[in-house]
């Protein structure tokens, strides 16, 4: 076994070989349900062995160290019973599916933090009487993952975490439309972490955290800035995810990156998990999120909200974009900032049209209150569940006056600053750095950025699309089909409400009661 740390490329190749070894037997989107927990077990086992060896040296023998750990599990990060250690797993030749399922349950029993994280997978699961993944495939996975140690002295948490994220991206590429539920492209997450630029002691929140990528990139940005300085107050991370399997991935991802994060499961819009003792929403310094775009919620979600989140207006049922944004805003401290990546239509729908439009009215309230700091238009075809471009909206509850940001909005158009990739485009490091410097220095750059006043936004009927102010190749702004559909649905929703009101008036005039 190699004595040097595994490099990122070797580790990525190892993990991808593991995925390829079961290709064809199960659908690609399901790879992660079996491979990620196994990788996690391997990491836990190797780290446990490292800690056991250290304690053996301290107390004079491995037998004594074993007995002490059995009595006091807090001596190690995670306690693994003997059957759950990789040495035992690799020797198992029959009934692997049942054995591994018992292993993850045993690990969860011994480690409360891992309950509902590692024990949700059933390696012995069947569909129509057939095993989802065979013992032969599990044996291949165990053999491949057993080639290298993944302990404390073999691979840095950051490198292992990056390889883990690489595997998530690979799963996303094979998952088609469902991928956006758990994965935000790495470079988009990095850009958002640069925009938020976390400071010591801050609390960071993602209300729809998926596999945890945005929180992790914020953590890594903090580490890049301050290194491993233990004298600084650490960041505290909070996230909520509705899907059980994705929630488990987020928890595993945080553990693998060696970061402390409070990840909760549940529907944030219906039942936000982080509350104060009086039942009000907990507030955070920074919020980072990529909610599902144009999600549909019933009006009752907004009208019956007990947390006073939707103070700027109720979004239409056709798109919850401004519902999510209002939840995040309500979760910010008085000097808090947030960055959310959302459908491009969120910054333009309804502008320039006659009649009422609820999204424009909510956007108007945010602009009039001088809360929107920046809007960044991304290139097309970055995300795995859509070819649409997306925008990052930065909201600041306390814009710095000394930098003349009051009553101004910075609009950045990087729609053509991308590299071609397969199967998706991506943002190069140079683009991320360029956007960060424009935002940090609050400057205009020909063909890239424009600073507008609130008055200018008002003259454009609260259209904040960067392409309206910073055009590329003299192209006119064209409404994408997806946005046109959402606008049509909202108009239809308003028409139905108007019809209902009209009939109420007619029935009242006729003296009818229903």
TrEMBL record:
TM spans (from-to): none
Gene Ontology annotations of biological process type: DNA restriction-modification system; methylation
Keyword Transferase (UniProt): yes
Keyword annotations of the record: Coiled coil, Methyltransferase, Restriction system, S-adenosyl-L-methionine, Transferase
Enzyme class, first EC level, given as a word: transferase
Domain DNA methylase adenine-specific: 157-477
Catalysed conversion reaction: a 2'-deoxyadenosine in DNA + S-adenosyl-L-methionine = an N(6)-methyl-2'-deoxyadenosine in DNA + S-adenosyl-L-homocysteine + H(+)
Coiled-coil intervals, chain numbering: 481-508
Source taxon at top rank: Bacteria
Occurrences of domain N6 adenine-specific DNA methyltransferase N-terminal (ranges): 11-144
Family named by the database record: Belongs to the N(4)/N(6)-methyltransferase family.
Entry protein name: site-specific DNA-methyltransferase (adenine-specific)
Organism of provenance: Thermodesulfovibrio yellowstonii
Lineage, opening ranks: Bacteria, Pseudomonadati, Nitrospirota, Thermodesulfovibrionia, Thermodesulfovibrionales
């Amino acid at each position: 076994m190699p004595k040097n740390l595994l490099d990122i490329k070797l580790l990525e190749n190892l993990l991808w070989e593991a995925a390829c070894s079961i290709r064809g037997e199960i659908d690609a989107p399901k790879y992660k349900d079996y491979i990620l927990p196994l990788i996690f077990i391997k990491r836990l086992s190797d780290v446990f062995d490292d800690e056991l060896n250290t304690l053996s040296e301290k107390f004079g023998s491995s037998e004594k160290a074993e007995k002490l750990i059995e009595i006091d599990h807090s001596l190690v990060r995670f306690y693994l019973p003997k059957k759950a250690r990789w040495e035992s797993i690799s020797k198992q030749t029959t009934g692997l599916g049942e054995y591994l399922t018992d292993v993850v349950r045993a690990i969860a029993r011994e480690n409360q933090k891992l309950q509902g994280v590692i024990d949700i997978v059933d390696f012995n699961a069947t569909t129509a009487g057939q095993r989802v993944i065979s013992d032969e495939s599990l044996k291949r996975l165990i053999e491949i993952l057993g080639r290298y140690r993944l302990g404390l002295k073999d691979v840095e948490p950051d490198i292992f975490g990056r390889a883990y994220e690489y595997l998530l991206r690979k799963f996303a590429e094979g998952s088609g439309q469902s991928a956006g539920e758990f994965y935000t492209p790495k470079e988009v997450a990095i850009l958002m972490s640069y925009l938020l630029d976390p400071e010591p002691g801050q609390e960071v929140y993602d209300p729809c955290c998926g596999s945890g990528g945005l929180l992790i990139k914020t953590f890594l940005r903090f580490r890049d800035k301050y290194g491993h300085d233990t004298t600084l107050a650490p960041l505290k991370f909070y996230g909520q995810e509705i899907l059980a399997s994705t929630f488990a991935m987020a928890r595993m991802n945080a553990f693998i990156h060696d970061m402390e994060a409070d990840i909760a499961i549940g529907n944030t819009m219906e039942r936000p998990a982080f509350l104060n003792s009086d039942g009000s929403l907990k507030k955070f310094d920074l919020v980072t999120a990529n909610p599902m775009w144009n999600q549909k919620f019933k009006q009752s979600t907004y009208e019956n909200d007990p947390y006073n989140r939707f103070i700027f207006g109720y979004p239409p049922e056709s798109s919850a974009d401004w519902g999510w944004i209002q939840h995040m805003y309500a979760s910010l401290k008085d000097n808090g900032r947030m960055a959310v990546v959302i459908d491009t239509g969120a910054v333009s729908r309804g502008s320039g049209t006659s009649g009422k439009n609820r999204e424009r009215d909510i956007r108007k309230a945010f602009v009039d209150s001088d809360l929107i700091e920046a809007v960044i238009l991304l290139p097309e075809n970055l995300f795995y569940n859509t070819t649409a471009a997306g925008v990052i909206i930065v909201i600041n509850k306390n814009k710095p006056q000394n930098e003349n940001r009051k009553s101004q909005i910075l609009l950045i158009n990087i729609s053509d600053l991308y590299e071609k990739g397969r199967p998706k485009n991506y943002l190069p490091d140079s683009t991320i750095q360029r956007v960060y410097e424009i935002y940090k220095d609050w400057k205009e750059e020909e063909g890239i950025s424009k600073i507008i006043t609130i008055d200018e936004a008002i003259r454009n009927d609260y259209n904040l699309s960067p392409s309206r102010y910073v055009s590329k190749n003299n192209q006119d702004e064209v409404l994408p089909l997806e946005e046109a559909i959402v606008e049509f649905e909202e108009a239809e929703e308003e028409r139905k409400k108007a019809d209902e009101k009209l009939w109420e008036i007619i029935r009242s005039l006729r003296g009818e009661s229903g």
